[in-house]
């Protein structure tokens, strides 16, 4: 298989003449089929369902002044009436934080069912309804990232929690039920299968090469932009068209080890990527996910666990082949995405 560091040089082939290729990503531990003949040129990709303008409904509970309409608050920044961001409980949580005393009681002898204990929180990123995350300056986005970190550290005190997922759904077709800019944090008593598969894949790569595959993911062909502490890339075996990863340059296993300086730096490159995606792809709905290590990752796993932030613009749906096989078809090569995204001008 072609190494991530040495992708094939396709020498300016047109989309019509590029050959399909299968790539296995050691990070997601899955095969992806690149089939450019199924698509148009990389520069022609646009959102089929651009985000609608963000009109304020008659009563949005996330707006400043309506705090009493929300689920209980966990904390706000700053801690006064003129807040910039709030972390609250989810009014309709997928898991219950009130079941911890029962969480050690297994539902069956085969461990196939356990009590639904966990946390499901919402981070309201701005007091104003018209503001999107990409409108906020890097320091303000850094504050949001530090709020994630603080909440993760709080939740990690609960011994029953094994994995914490931070994610953002932007736009209705990306799963957002509220148009006011927000993200979510879910804490689970189990390690999800995608996370376990990622650990298996990165372990195999480490045992084969002696290197962390995410430390190795910074090949020039795939790099979009970089900051002092982070690099953004179109991943070697991207599952989705125009998928972008933001990776710490230094090896780091846990997102919640992020410090204030790096949070602002990450805020800057995250803002840049969201703006470039919006401009190049006609402001598509998107998801981002922070892929960090399980809380109870062992010392021996640290050399090959490396956190990163994944941005997925919603450009195409998932069909029966993907659902049935777990193998995805991507119509655009990531090195072409990286070239297009490097050239996006925001001036």
From TrEMBL:
CDD domains: GalT. It holds the Pfam family GalP_UDP_tr_C. GO terms for molecular function: metal ion binding; nucleotidyltransferase activity. Binds 1 zinc ion per subunit. Residues 18-192 form the Galactose-1-phosphate uridyl transferase N-terminal domain. This is ADP-glucose phosphorylase. Belongs to the galactose-1-phosphate uridylyltransferase type 1 family. InterPro entries: ADP-glucose_phosphorylase, GalP_UDPtransf1, GalP_Utransf_C, GalP_Utransf_N, HIT-like_sf. Keywords: Carbohydrate metabolism, Metal-binding, Nucleotidyltransferase, Transferase, Zinc. Signal peptide: none annotated. The keyword Metal-binding applies. The active site is at residue 182. It comes from Cardamine amara subsp. amara. Zn(2+) binds at residues 60, 63, 129, 180.
């Amino acid at each position: 298989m072609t190494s991530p560091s040495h992708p094939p040089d396709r020498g300016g082939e047109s989309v019509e003449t590029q050959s399909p290729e299968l790539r296995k990503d050691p990070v997601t531990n899955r095969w992806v089929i690149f089939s450019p003949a199924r698509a148009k040129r990389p520069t022609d990709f646009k959102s089929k369902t651009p985000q609608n303008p963000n009109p304020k409904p008659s009563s949005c509970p996330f707006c400043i002044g309506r705090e009493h309409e929300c689920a209980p608050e966990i904390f706000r920044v700053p801690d006064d009436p003129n807040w910039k961001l709030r972390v609250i409980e989810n009014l309709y949580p997928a898991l219950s934080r009130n079941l911890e005393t029962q969480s050690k009681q297994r539902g069956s002898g085969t461990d196939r069912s356990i009590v639904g204990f966990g946390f499901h929180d919402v981070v309201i990123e701005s007091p104003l309804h018209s503001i999107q995350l990409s409108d906020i300056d890097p320091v303000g986005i850094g504050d949001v990232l530090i709020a994630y970190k603080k909440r993760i550290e709080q939740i990690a005190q609960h011994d029953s929690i094994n994995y914490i997922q931070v994610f953002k759904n932007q736009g209705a077709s990306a799963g957002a039920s509220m148009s006011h800019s927000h993200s979510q944090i879910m804490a689970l008593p189990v390690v999800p299968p995608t996370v376990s598969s990622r650990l298996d894949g990165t372990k195999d790569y480490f045992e084969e090469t002696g290197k962390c595959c995410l430390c190795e993911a910074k090949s020039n062909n795939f790099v979009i932009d970089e900051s002092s502490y982070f690099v953004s890339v179109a991943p070697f075996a991207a599952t989705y068209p125009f998928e972008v990863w933001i990776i710490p340059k230094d090896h780091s296993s846990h997102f919640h080890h992020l410090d204030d300086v790096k949070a602002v730096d990450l805020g800057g490159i995250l803002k840049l990527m969201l703006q470039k995606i919006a401009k190049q792809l006609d402001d598509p709905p998107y998801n981002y996910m922070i892929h960090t290590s399980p809380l109870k990752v062992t010392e021996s796993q640290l050399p090959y666990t490396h956190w990163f932030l994944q941005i997925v613009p919603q450009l195409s749906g998932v069909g029966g082949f993907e659902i049935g096989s777990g193998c995805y078809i991507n119509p655009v090569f990531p090195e072409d995405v990286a070239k297009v995204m490097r050239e996006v001008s925001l001036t």
